[in-house]
Structure formats: C-alpha cells, structure tokens
Amino acid sequence: MDQFSKLPKRGTIQSFFNSYSTNNRKSNSSVTDNTSDSHSDERIKTVSRSVDSEQQQDQISLHSPSSSSRILSPLQNCSTSSNKEENVCLFSSESPALLSPSNKRRQDQTSLSSPKSPRLVSPSSRSSQFVSASPSSKQQQLTSSAAGPDVLLISPIQRQQEQTDLSLSKCSSSLLSSSNKSQLYPFDLSNSLNEPPAQPKLATYPFDKDKRCFHSQWFLQFSWLEYSVQTDFAYCYYCRHFNSSARLNTRNQSDAFVNGFHSWKNAFSKKQGFSKHELSQSHKQAVVNFEEYVLRKKSSSNVIQVLDRSRNQVIEQNRTKLKKIISLLHLCARQMIALRGHVEDASSTNRGNFIELLKWSSSTDPVVSSILNDSAKNSTYLSPQIQNEMISLVASNIRQQITTKIKECMFSLMVDESRDISGNEQLSVVVRVIDLEVTANKDNLYRSTLFKEYFLGFIKLVEFDAQSLTDEIVKFLSSINVDLQNCIAMCFDGASVLSGIHSGVQALLRQQFIPRAIYVHCYAHKLNLVICDVTKAIPYLSEFYSIVNKIYTYFHKSSVTNETFKKVQQQLKIDCSILSNSTTIKNWAETRWDSRWTSIQSIIDNYRVLKQSLEELENEGSDRSIDARGLLLGIREPLFIVTLFIIQQLFGKIKILSDQLKCKISHSTTSKSLDFGKAHSLISDIINQINELRSKEEFSRLFEQIAEFCDVNDVDFNVPAKHRRTKTLSTRFKDCVVMSTIGQRENISSVDEFRDRVFYPVIDAILIEMNDRFSNSNLEIIRGISSLSPDSSQFLEIEELTHLCNMLQCDGQLLKNEIQVLKPMLKEPKLKDIVDLYFEVLPYKQAFPTVISLLVGALTIPVSSATTERTFSKMKFIKTAARNSMTDTRLSDLSIIAIERDFDVDYEQIVDTFAIEHKNSRILLK
Questions:
Q1: Which residues pair with 412 in a beta bridge?
Q2: Residues paired with residue 518 on neighbouring β-strands, in sequence order
Q3: Range with the lowest mean pLDDT among 258-267, 443-452, 486-495, 773-782?
C-alpha cells in the first residue's frame, strides 16, 4: 500500500501508466502468495482517497435511466459506506492504444460519473453509486427527484419492476460478504452478470518469459474462464462476481482467479492450475451462488411478465369489444340503417336497431355478450355521444383515404345544393380524379376504374349568396387538407349563384384562388333543359304532357282504379300472353331526367290495358267514370298516338346520351366512363342522327309502326278527330305581328299534316336547343381535348394543344419534343379514344411525362355533376321523416360511409385514434 500511496495525481496518470506498462511487459514472476508484490506491475490497481466534500456530487439518483430497469449483480449491490471513496484508475483514458473497443465503450459509460476526468470504477464502487443502502435512502432520492424540474411518471408496472430489482439485489448480496477493498478489474472483462464471460479468441497471445502463452482452446474446456487482453491475465467468471471469501487477507489458489492468473506453465498443474480451481470449494460455492442468482432473476422476470401479460390481456379484451361496436356501427351506416330508438332505456322493449342487434347477436357471440353483461355501467361505450364519435372516426378514416389519393393529383370540383327533410340547405362536395395506380392489361379490365369521383361530405348552408358559398367550399377543403391549387376544372349546374359569369361561385373561385381552372356547365343538366324547352315550344306537346300526367294520377290516386288496372293486366297476360316491359304506368317528372322516356314507353307497353281499364271504369257510373271517359277520348285520338311515337323515337336517342352523361363511374364495373372529348363526339353524333330523321322516308317508316300499333290495339286511325271550333284572330291583334300561338289550332288529320305540323317542328326544336346549348362553350379546351383523340383529323397537333397546355401549366417546348417522338410510334389502328392513348403511353411515362400530364388533365375534366345528384338520393334515404332530428355533422358522416362503401376501414387504427382522444378513458386501450 505504500507504493500505491505515492501515485501521482490526475495530471500525471499517463506517465505513471507508461512506467507500469513497461514493467508489466518485463515481469516474469508467476502468481505468489504476496498479492501486492506479484501483481503490482501486471494488474489494475486502485487508489482511494477521502472525498467527503464531494459525496453529493458523486452520488447518482436511483431514477437514472441506466439503473431504473436493470437487475444489478451481487457485486454491484453492496452497501454504501459512510465515507465515500473516489476511485482513480492507474490507466488513464488518454491512452487509447491499449484499449479495445469494448474498453472504450465501458470507459464512455463510466465517464458519466465524472465528466471532467474519466476513471475506472470497480463493480463494488459502482454499485455504491447506483444502489442505496436502505429503502429509506431510496425513498429520499425518489422524493428529491420528484422535486426537480424533470418529473418522472412511474407506472405501477415500473414501480413493481424497481421494487423487484431492489429485492433481488438485496437477496443476491446476501450470498457474499462485502470486501473492505474495492477490487478493480480491466475494462475488457465482463462488467456485470448481464454480460457473458470475456473470451476473446485471438490469433496469437502474448508470450511470457518461459515462451508460454494463453490458448483459446481453454475456453472450450472451462466455460467459466475469462481472459483480459489488457493485462494478459485469466480470471474466473463465477468467482469474480460471486467471491465467497469474506476478506482477501488470506491468500489461496482460488483468489488467483479472482485477482488474475498468469502462470501459463502451471495452467494444468494439479496444485494450482485450472482443474485445481474448478474443484476448489470457493469455486463450487460461487457456481451455486450464480445459479441461485439466475433463478431469482428468472423468478422476478416471471412476475413482471405475468403483470404485463395480464395488462395486455385486459387491453386486448377492451380493444376487441370496441372493435365489435365500431364494426356494427359501420355496418348500419353502410346499409343506411337507423341506429337510435325513440326510448333507449332498459325498460324499453325496442331500444333501437343498434342496441337490438347487439342483444340479438349476444346469444351467439361471447364478445357482444361481454359488452352487454360484463361492462361497467359507466363504460359500456354504447351511448349516443360515443356512437356519434365513432361514426365520425370511421367517416374521417374514409375521408383521409380519399384525400391521400387526391393529395398530389389534379382534380375537378363538383358541387350542388339541395334541401333535406328538415328544410336545411345541404351543399354536396364531390371531386373527380384519375387513379394513377391503374394500369391496363390486355383485356382493358381496369378501364372502368380509371375515373374516380369521390364524395367528401355535406356542408350546411346558412347564407346562400355566392361569396358565402365560396367561403364555405374553401374552408371545407382546407379542413380536410385538400389543396385547391390542384383544381383544374369546376362543374356546376345552371343556377346563377353557382354558374354566374361575373359574381357566381365559379367566377369567384377563379378570381380569388384558381385563375387557370375552367368552368363546365353540367351537360346532363343542359340536356334536361333541352327537353324542357322543347316541351314548351311545341303547342301540342304541353297538352300531350298534361294527358300523360293525368293518366298516371288517375291510376295511382285510387285503389279502385289501380286494382282494375292490375286485374285487366293479369287477364290480358293469361289470355293473350302479352308480356309488357313495364308493368305499371310511370310518372313524367321534372326532376327525373329519364322519366319522360320511361313514362311514354310504359304507356306504349300498356296501351291495351289502359284502353280496356278505362272502358270498364267508364261504365261504373261514378265520378271516376267521367274522368275515365275523358282520358279514353284522349288516348284514342290519332294525334296523341302519333305524338306518342314521335316522342318515343326522339327522346329515345336523347336518353342514350343522357345515360352516358350521368353514368355511374366509381362503383359500376359495366358502365363506360365518359371523358370530355368523348362527350362532345357523342353529342355531335346524336345531333346528326336526329337531323337525319327529318325526312319523308323516316316519317313513312315511323307511320307504318303507328298503323300497326293501331291495328293491334283496335284503334281506328281513320276516325276524324273531335271537331274543334275554329278560332279567329282577336281584333286587338289586328295591327300586331303575332310571333306565337294565341289559342288558334287547326285540326290535323292527314299524314302530311302530322309530318309537317308535329314531326318536323319537334325535330327542329330539339336541334335548335342542342346546338344552342352545346356549342361555343369552352371551344378552345374542346379543340385541345379533341386533338388528343386518335380519330381526330388534328391528332396531336401542337397548335390545337397550346391552350390546353397553358391551362394545365405544362412546358410547351417539352410537349412539342415529346410529340415529335411519340407520333411515329402511334401507327397502330387499335387506338380509339383518349383512354386508349393514355394506356398506350403509360408504360413510357418516364419518356413522355408532359404528354401523360396532358392526358390526365384532359381525362380529369368532368362532363356532368350527376354524382352530386346521386348523393342527394342517398341523403333522402338516410335523413328521413322519422330521422329528421339528425345533426348535420352526423348526416355528413353517415352519408360518406354509405356512398363510399367500397373503402375498407382499419378498425385497429380507429381504436388507436379513439384511445388518443380519450387518454383518461375508464378502460385501458393502449
């Protein structure tokens, strides 16, 4: 000890290390009984000095992250002495040449205790810093730690872990006696029982004076053997950590494997070698202590695992219950099933569909049974508030999936408004995008899935001016993270507040947010206006429309007339085997675009049934007979029959166009989506076909069908029409130019008169309205999109594409270069439209990015806003007269779940979100 008392201070540790390392290499002495003399130059030594003034600085809180969750080895779990000692390593950390990577790592860990001067710390001294001598001292440290600025929240499981670790350390420390000396070991040995024995396998080991060295094969023979490269000494792993000798004053052979063994020539000696140590009593006791320690560690780990497993089971059960509730809510919302009941308390026999479905399934589903029977009364999670919240989470999940798809894509905006059953104005918001993930195969099976139109939700309107609507639209899109700058087109109906050219919503959006976006007046609404205007322009069509509506009303307002119609219809089917396409009379409705054609077709299919039913009802003698006689005269009149067939033929062609303009895009696998260019091509074809009907030959063929129809239904077409009094022009119009009818109408009886006064005027009115409404709107855009069609004479002409290119903000020069390369590659006649061209160029999207962008933009521009009309149909199924107290938020959420029913919902994600929003929930969810 006199030699160690003369050690230099910290500043001279490096020179001292060099002198000792030189002696270390020159030392040839073996292990002797005098420990301090034989190992003074070969092993690590410590110097202790009193540091009473620095005790509080060296002490480390029990709440240190490195010690709070770790089970300490017995050597680390020793009592804290009253006088703290500062351990100074003889080998300075400033000599990296003799330190292995593992030594440097341990040195860095040790440096945490003294930032200014890294030093070696023995396991016993380290444990005095990390483990308090008594529970009371630990409690004081916990209290002082809690008083600091960084407050640590300890869960019950963590508290149990700390208590178990402390108990285990105390029990393990009873296996050995604390040494008065602080034993210091090299850094390259195992630092704790959490580390395996240090057994480095080197190509060569240092030779001693007898030309002998350590051999790595010895590790295979003695698993407890450790070797320090730093000191060239061998140690016993068990005896180092579980030394059973109370003091090291008495030197024995086993102590050599605690302090270090270097006599390689005696490694297998019967008196002091490895075998001798393995058979020693101290080694056997150390092995027993180690096994007991491992057993205790495993036992404490099992306790924690049991607690964790129990907690995880509770969490999993709660999450399973919540997922079952969410799945049932999702099902009811998808199927538009009402959830709530009028009275939902326990005394009610009908607590609503949601609760009743849970009760019904509880007999076969144990999870549902547990929800109803085992849950606490204040945590059933079946309340209306929780229902609304979970429905909102499901709707938000679907909406988030939609916004993810359109986040980086060009899209078109479609909005429309309608009034719900409560009288609130609801604005429907729909976006149209091109699914860039869709690729074509040889059968073009994915063609119908290329176009996507997504419903985003309803917005309740309080003010109905254009600026208020614009603000609501922008606010809504911003709330769901949809960038309005990616909008390239808008499609609204003809309402002035939406489509006004100066102060409508479309004008305000372009002025304030999206100046390059184009506005498209919904083509389906335009076509409906064509039919309405034609009906008003032709005098007799208004009368014809009135007769058709009266027929529908007559047979539906009374059960007697309806039963008579069904009875006659059944008799004619049995007697004559007449199988009509329509079994009932359809209504001619203003808001149903197909109703004009379907109502006319239903009258043609059921004309004989109508005629015979009216004849029977005419003979009843009641008030109904008067109406029946009037309707019978009306449907027998030749003008009615001729007009019936004229409208059926002309409106039939318009219906084809109408079906294409409002075809269901997202959820139909059979309908072909219509792009902007194809819509104009189809409109032009329909106009040409209607124009071709204006000929004597076409009317002659039509009149032959009328004559055949009259023969089948026993109608005498040659009977003159009812004589009408000829009206003369009023004298007050004597000096006026009359441009419209004033009640004058001549009787029509001949074929030529039917052709010239009915057939031709109807065709002319349709052509005028269609040419007026479908021409000169967005002409430059139409020309650009049309030039992308392979059947166009201006196919891929850069002059025609310039305006469309500028609108989509594409580089004109790049587009020109790409088209020059692309056109020679597109000589195949298989390309029919823009969609075919898109799929043809798609495999080369890296080579033609500008062309792809141009095609995507052209396909994104919508033709009609019919999807918004379909959302209102869903709204009427969801918010009914029996559910008119539904809030607007709930209506929007239920609508998006029902309309976008094809989206899958991740219930695990819903539960996670619910758990985050309810951190103080009464049940564990995370």
A1: 432, 489
A2: 489
A3: 443-452
Task: Report residue 311 as tokens.
Answer: 């907690």
The pLDDT-based confidence of 330 (bands split at 50, 70, 90) is very high
Radius of gyration of the chain (CA): 47
Q: How far apart are CA 551 and CA 588, in angstroms?
A: 10
**Cβ-Cβ contacts under 8 Å for 36 (sequence gap 6 or more):** 1, 3
Q: Report pLDDT digits (tens) over 526-578.
A: 888 888 888 887 878 888 888 888 998 888 888 888 888 888 888 887 555 45
CA distance 89 to 182: 12
The answer to whether the beta carbons of residues 590 and 548 sit under 8 Å apart is no
Q: Which residues contact 603 (CB under 8 A, 6 or more apart)?
A: 548, 551, 585, 610, 635, 644
**Contact predicate 610/635, CB 8 Å:** yes
As a whole number of angstroms, the distance between CA 923 and CA 909 comes to: 17
The arithmetic mean of pLDDT across residues 846-868, rounded, is: 88
Q: For residue 661, how many C-alpha atoms fall within 13 Å in the half-sphere facing its CB?
A: 29
- Rounded CA separation 469/43 (Å): 85
> Which pair of tokens denotes residue 358?
């849970």
Using CA atoms, how far residue 810 sits from 490, 782, 804, in Å, is: 19, 17, 9
Comparing C-alpha atoms, which of 425, 416, 599, 429 is closest to residue 525? 416
659: tokens are 């079906």
Euclidean distance between CA atoms 77 and 124, whole angstroms: 7
DSSP helix/strand/coil, 185:
coil
Q: Which two tokens stand for residue 515?
A: 């100046």
3-state secondary structure 518-574: EEEECHHHHHHHHHHHHHHHCHHHHHHHHHHHHHHHHHHCCHHHHHHHHHHHHHHHH
What percent of the chain has a predicted confidence (pLDDT) above 90?
A: 20
**Contact assessment for residue 322 and residue 389, using Cβ atoms and an 8 Å cutoff:** no
48 neighbors 85 (Cβ within 8 angstroms): yes
Residue identified by tokens 């023995």 is 122
Q: Which residues of 342-379 are buried (b: 16+ CB within 10 A; e: fewer)?
A: eebeeeeeebbbbbebbeebbeeeeebeebeeebeeee
- Answer for the pair 79, 131: CB distance below 8 angstroms, yes or no: no
Place of tokens 């855009």: 781
What pLDDT does 634 receive?
A: 87
User: Does the pLDDT of residue 222 top 80, yes or no?
Assistant: yes
CA 808 to chain centre: 28
Measured distance CA(101)–CA(98) in Å, rounded: 10
> In a 10 Å sphere around its CB, with 0-12 CB exposed, 13-18 middle and 19+ buried, how is residue 589 labelled?
middle
Cβ atoms of residues 597 and 659 within 8 Å: no
Distance of CA 861 to the CA centre of its chain: 25
Q: Which two tokens stand for residue 658?
A: 């109408």
Query: 10 Å Cβ neighbour count for 697?
Result: 8
Once rounded to an integer, what is the mean pLDDT over residues 445-473? Answer: 86
Angle between helical axes of 812-822 and 798-807 (0-180°, round to 10):
140
Phi and psi dihedrals of 259, rounded to 5?
-90, -20
Q: Quick one: DSSP state of residue 81?
A: P
Q: What are phi and psi of 694, to 5 degrees?
A: -80, 75
What DSSP assignment string belongs to 689-702?
A: HHHHT-SHHHHHHH
**pLDDT 10s digits, 46-84:** 333 333 433 333 433 333 333 333 333 333 433 333 333
DSSP string, 274-317: HHHHHTSHHHHHHHHHHHHHHHHHHHHHHHHHHHHHHHHHHHHH
* Cα end-to-end distance, the chain, whole Å: 59
User: From the CB of residue 284, how many other CB atoms can be counted at a distance below 10 Å?
Assistant: 14
Model pTM score:
0.64
Each residue's pLDDT tens digit, 806-852: 888 888 888 888 888 888 888 766 777 888 888 888 888 888 888 88
Say how far apart CA 459 and CA 415 lie, in whole Å.
Answer: 10
Contact 788, 796 (CB under 8 A): yes
